[in-house]
Amino acid sequence: SCVNFVYYLFCKYTWCVPGAVYKSEPDVSLFDHLKTTAAIAGCLYVKKRSEEQDNEFLLLGGDISGIQKFIYKITNVQGVKGVSKRLRGRSFYLSLMQDVIAQRFLNRLLLSTPHLLFCGGGRFEMLLPNTSEITREINKVQSEINKWLLEEYAGELGLITASVSADQDSIKNYSDLLKDLDHAISI
Q1: What's the rounded Cα separation, in Å, for the pair 185 and 187?
Q2: What are the residues whose beta carbons fall under 8 Å from the beta carbon of 54, sequence distance 6 or more?
Q3: Beta-carbon neighbour count of residue 158 at 10 Å?
Q4: In Å, how far are 11, 16, 23, 99, 118 from 27, measured between CA atoms?
Q5: By CB neighbour count within 10 A (0-12 exposed, 13-18 middle, 19+ buried), where does 132 fall?
Q6: pLDDT at residue 70 in the model
Q7: Which of 89, 91, 121, 119 is nearest to 103 (CA)?
Q8: DSSP readout, the chain?
Q9: pTM recorded for the entire structure
Q10: Is the pLDDT of residue 77 over 70?
Q11: Mean pLDDT of 97-101
């Protein structure tokens, strides 16, 4: 889509440009600033169309559980050569899996790539519009993914998701929202 094209174009050319040059030590790239602004604008647009009155934003976090056991399971086999290659291969496979899972959420929610704020280390974070339709779809997608993980890996891997809602004032203190999200995921 056009949004994804512009997204990757901005990523290529603005990742190392400071986002706030008026600061003495700019700490956010222009790309990250633009991506977050696009996610917020997208959430506000969807929320305005839905006419629901609760908080505008939903910060969704997803965590793939069982990663370490899955990766290091092959080191217990005696006499197998190339263990380091296998470890890197499994790690790469899991990295691709988390990207696919995050993209699956975005596709099913009919949202674009800027809504994916972070994806790495077996975890992802998304800024989504807080509507009942989005919440229902999140639950459906999580159930489908966990069913697939159960069939493919016999319960060795699983997807845990949690979310916290935020309004326009609380979204400004993103670090507190992340703490709340981490707590919700750990529960």
Answers
A1: 5
A2: 130, 165
A3: 14
A4: 16, 10, 9, 26, 17
A5: exposed
A6: 84
A7: 119
A8: -HHHHHHHHHHHHHTTSBS-TTSSS--SBHHHHHHHHHHHHHHHHHHHHHT--S-SEEEEEEEEETHHHHHHGGGGSTT-S-HHHHHHHHHHHHHHHHHHHHHHHHHHTT--GGGEEEEETTEEEEEEE--HHHHHHHHHHHHHHHHHHHHHHTTSSEEEEEEEEE-TTGGG-HHHHHHHHHHHHH-
A9: 0.85
A10: no
A11: 95
| HSE-up of residue 26 (Cα within 13 Å, Cβ side) | 14
What's residue 25's pLDDT? 75
Q: How confident is the model at residue 158 (pLDDT cuts 50, 70, 90)?
A: very high
